[in-house]
Specification:
single chain; alpha/beta; Lyase, Ornithine Decarboxylase, Chain A, domain 1; TIM Barrel; 8-stranded parallel β-sheet; globular; binds pyridoxal-5'-phosphate
Amino acid sequence: MTARIVVGMDVADLPTPVVVVDRAILRRNVAAMAAHARRLGVALRPHWKTTKSAQAARLQLEAGAVGLTAATAAEMQALADGISPSVFLAYPPVGRARTDAVLAAMRSAEVIIGADSVDAVRDLAERVHALGRTVAVRLDVDTGLRRTGVVPEKAVGAARALAAMPGVVVEGVWTHEGQVQGVGADETRRMKAGVAAGRLLVETAEAIRADGIPVTSVSVGSTPGARSAPTVPGITEMRPGTYVLGDENQVRIGTVENDDVAVSVHSSVVSIEPEPWVIIDAGIKAMSSDGSTHGDGRIGTVIGPSGGVVVTGHEEHGFLQGATGVRVGDVVKVRPNHACGVVNMHSQIAVVEDGVVVDVWPVLARH
Ligand SMILES: Cc1ncc(COP(=O)(O)O)c(C=O)c1O
């Protein structure tokens, strides 16, 4: 049985390790990104992989998001099942299990699929066509990340091939400009990289339109690129995800302010042996081992008077270095490198305000 997290509990009494989200900060982040999208005149479709929580999704939708983005079939299904009226699956629908999931999700929500090849959508298209329906597909365009997506030179041909498939309506183009994160902390270079990605996508959409396919959605998406890529005229939608919680990687490169990080993992010091190690109960099963943009392998940073860095982890053991004055039993707050990987390791989020648990959010669709 898992230890209970109960509304009304003092934060200090939470069972550790536990992922904690500050509700006031999260709400502020939701409102700020919604206002930013409104100012730019683009639709906001946050990526849900960051929180996987129905409550967070509802706050984002109430603030004006047009729908949400999913990476997995389970996320898409959970969203379609009463959370969001519209879901973009930004992942190729390859394999029977995924096409089953898309067909099921299409019964209760608008579903848009992201893909870069005819082969990826063939099974889905055939099954949708057999039902006398169509599925909306956005062409995945690689604007520099080199992780799926056709390069712009191949986009017209790929769009044409998809549009020729019975059952498919090519509705738009999209990119994940994750390369902007790789640029690091130089804001000018980061802005340039985001704008370059946005321009490339808009030009690609125009070339596809000139070929006779009337694509309407031109969708970019990332937190590091949120201030740049969607500013390009012709972009219609943005899909940041991490912004809602923030994390150490974003703070490090300057795309999220220190005070805007809503998430931390509270962890107990369980041993200070052998010297000089301080061992905490948040290892890689609580923190994920996703790399840091520090490039130094660290998996988290302690926020608070003791300081210190979680430099590595075993499954249930985090190796804390540089913390001062800590004793066995103390609780430290660790800011993770990458919020999304961490949330996915937990079945619940303790939502807090002013030191008290105000809600407990189940983490959905973890598989
Ligand atoms: C397809 C897609 N869109 C949007 C995002 C959101 O990016 P970020 O986590 O930087 O906010 C991601 C993140 O991995 C993604 O893969």
